[in-house]
Design goal:
Mean pLDDT: 83
Strand order of the largest sheet: 1-8-3-6
Low-confidence stretches: none
Number of strands: 11
Largest sheet: 4 strands, antiparallel
Helix content: 25-40%
Strand content: 15-25%
Oligomer: single chain
Number of helices: 8
Length: about 230
């Protein structure tokens, strides 16, 4: 079983129990839906490769992107209440996932020492990451919003052993602008400005962080300082 589908290093009979619970899913193609808003599907999903976006449909019919999810991250936590998913999840590129039915997982967690605590830690980390979006949206300064997103993505890539300076943005500029609450023209100008400041090296969807301390300073800059 791929290590990305395990919340911790587990072996022996405990690993066999987990292996019986985790379902290996066929790859999702770009634009394919993993789950839809308001549909009951009580399972967690672990992104093994690729990336997804989650989004909600607003009352007026517009779509608000809530997050982007990369390898090693959980998707579907908001659907565990049994009342249906609060958002939809769509593949941004060819992706593969593991599906973990929640009822079976709770049974295994009760039998595997320490697994329940480890699951709580993983879920807590995911909830903390989701809080980054409203905090970021509270920033009035557009440059800070983009810097916060790029720094967060860099930290997440470091966590799964990737080069934190090299970012592949699988989302379009329009999708990123939607997530940041900015106009697409503003996002394009910000990338150009950060490149002129020698903070980033931008080549379409490939972004290299040239000056991590400068990016962190932009992310932490208050609206009054901007």
């Amino acid at each position: 079983m791929n290590p990305l589908c395990l919340p911790a290093s587990i072996g022996g009979s405990d690993l066999l129990r987990l292996d019986q619970v985790v379902k290996q899913r066929m790859p999702l193609e770009r634009g394919e839906i993993l789950f839809r808003e308001n549909v009951v599907h009580p399972a967690l999903f672990v992104v093994r490769s690729g990336s997804l976006k989650t989004y909600a449909t607003l009352p007026e019919g517009d779509v608000q992107i809530l997050g982007f999810h990369i390898a090693g991250e959980l998707v579907g936590l908001e659907g565990l209440s049994g009342n249906g998913h609060r958002c939809s999840a769509e593949a941004l590129e060819r992706s593969s996932l593991c599906e973990i039915p929640f009822d079976l997982l709770t049974d295994v967690a009760a039998k595997v020492p320490g697994l329940q605590q480890q699951l709580f830690r993983v879920m807590s980390r995911e909830f903390a990451r989701e809080l980054e979006h409203p905090v970021m949206m509270g920033r009035k300064q557009a440059m800070s919003r983009l810097a916060i997103f790029l720094r967060s993505l860099s930290d997440r890539l470091r966590g799964i052993g990737h080069d934190p300076r090299v970012l592949h943005l699988s989302m379009s500029r329009q999708e990123l602008a939607n997530y940041l609450g900015l106009a697409i023209e503003t996002v394009s100008r910000l990338f150009s400005r950060m490149q002129a400041m020698q903070v980033l090296d931008v080549d379409r969807r490939s972004v290299r962080i040239v000056d991590p301390p400068a990016l962190a300073a932009l992310a932490e800059k208050s609206d009054d300082e901007a």
